[in-house]
């Protein structure tokens, strides 16, 4: 009975650790890309509806790439 309880606790700790590491790793990245993508892909954005300002798709792609590179650079900063 005690061994079964210990195995149950260890398996729950293992699955909780896997879930927590996935959430920290990938959840933070998904939230970051969502926040940086909102200004670009929001349909009511004034910068992308102007005629004669260039191809809308290329302008959106350029801004999204710039925002994602900012996110990558932000992730590389080491806090002391």
Supply database-style keywords:
mainly alpha, 80 residues, 76% helix
Q: What does this 3D model show about the protein?
A:
Helix content is 76%, strand content 0%. It is an all-alpha fold. It has one domain. Helix 1 crosses helix 2. The longest helix is centred in the N-terminal third of the chain and has 40 residues, at 2-41. 0% of the residues are buried.
| Low confidence ranges | none
Please outline the major beta sheet: none
Any idea what the radius of gyration is? 21 Å
Report the order of strands and helices: HH
Question: Which structural class should the secondary elements be placed in?
Answer: mainly alpha
Record the SSE blueprint:
Blueprint: H1 2-41, H2 56-76
Structure in a nutshell:
The chain is built from 2 helices and no strands. The protein is mostly helical and 80 residues long. The protein has one domain.
């Amino acid at each position: 009975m005690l061994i079964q309880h210990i195995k149950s606790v260890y398996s729950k700790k293992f699955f909780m650790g896997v879930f927590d590491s996935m959430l920290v790793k990938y959840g933070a990245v998904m939230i970051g890309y969502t926040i940086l993508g909102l200004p670009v892909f929001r349909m009511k954005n004034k910068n992308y509806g102007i005629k004669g300002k260039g191809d809308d798709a290329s302008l959106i792609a350029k801004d999204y790439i710039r925002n994602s590179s900012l996110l990558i650079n932000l992730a590389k900063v080491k806090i002391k």
